[in-house]
Specification:
Radius of gyration: 22 Å
Number of helices: 2
Strand order of the largest sheet: 1-5-6-8-9-11-12-13-14-15
Order of helices and strands: HEEEEHEEEEEEEEEEE
Structural class: mainly beta
Distance between the termini: 39 Å
């Protein structure tokens, strides 16, 4: 029963739309503003590596996820909006998720007295908020396809905690001991991105189509990129899409977020007005 209630909560909070919502809309040259709202259910696998740093124990790289939604999800909320006028479009995408404790493996690089360390046990928790703002312009309209060029800014705020018990040897010699490690860190990441989005019709009446989205960017993190494709069906009131979305951030050096991946299927319904 508890798992069923958690599943219902997940479905209820996934009232959102990805930033490619406009790509699922038919091409138009109207001078009037048109808007789209897309409730959807996205079930990504969330995983990666976080680098926790303490002066007395060097760096500790902790694997993050993949998280079990039914067991680890504490809260999730998403929301997207899109507006289009002729060839021009604006979009905004926001995501917030919070995962409870999850078992982890830790690779430690000690310093000073704690020169050699290895994991005995560990747990991580993760909270992340994403805000994406961008705009697009239609650069191609073909009989069975349309393509938008897009550009924008993506912000990611990540906070995480690590609790671990380490096997430690002093300078690599002598008897070991087992210090308890607890550390919490936060990182704000700002990246610009460029890319494209669009759709390819599979039938003459354009009811069945393939939406696609791709962007790449950099900034505070070394690299960020996002991709989506799937299949859609257009109706009078809007569209229904089954797609697969991948979002990744890569850091370098002593960045807190060494790597963070969100990837999984999404089911959405787009309402236009």
């Amino acid at each position: 029963m508890c798992r069923l209630l958690k599943s219902a909560l997940v479905c209820a909070t996934f009232l959102t739309s990805p930033s490619w919502a406009a790509a699922a809309e038919p091409a138009n040259t109207s001078d009037q503003w048109q808007f789209a709202v897309t409730p959807y259910l996205w079930l990504p696998s969330v995983s990666g590596t976080l680098r926790f740093t303490l002066p007395e124990s060097g760096t500790n790289d902790a694997s993050t996820g993949p998280y079990n939604y039914l067991e680890n999800l504490k809260f999730l909320a998403m929301l997207q909006g899109e507006a289009r006028k002729g060839d021009w479009s604006l979009f905004a995408d926001t995501i917030y998720l919070s995962f409870g404790r999850h078992g982890t493996s830790v690779k430690s690089a000690g310093s000073g007295a704690l020169a050699r360390e290895s994991l005995r046990s560990g747990e991580t928790s993760l909270k992340a908020g994403l805000v994406q703002l961008g705009g697009g312009h239609t650069i191609a309209r073909l009989p069975h396809a349309s393509i938008d060029a897009i550009a924008g800014m993506r912000y990611l705020g990540v906070s995480g905690s690590l609790d671990a018990s380490l096997d430690t040897s002093l300078g690599g010699r002598g008897p070991g001991f087992h210090p308890q490690l607890h550390v919490s860190q936060r990182k704000d990441i700002f990246n610009g991105f460029i890319g494209m989005r669009g759709r390819v019709s599979l039938t003459d009446d354009a009811r069945w189509y393939v939406p696609f989205y791709l962007d790449v960017g950099t900034g505070t993190s070394n690299l960020t990129w996002q991709a989506m494709t799937g299949i859609g069906y257009a109706m009078k009131w809007g569209d229904v899409n089954l797609s697969y979305r991948y979002l990744e951030f890569r850091g370098s050096g002593d960045d807190f977020v060494q790597r963070l991946r969100l990837n999984g299927p999404a089911l959405s319904a787009t309402f236009r007005f």
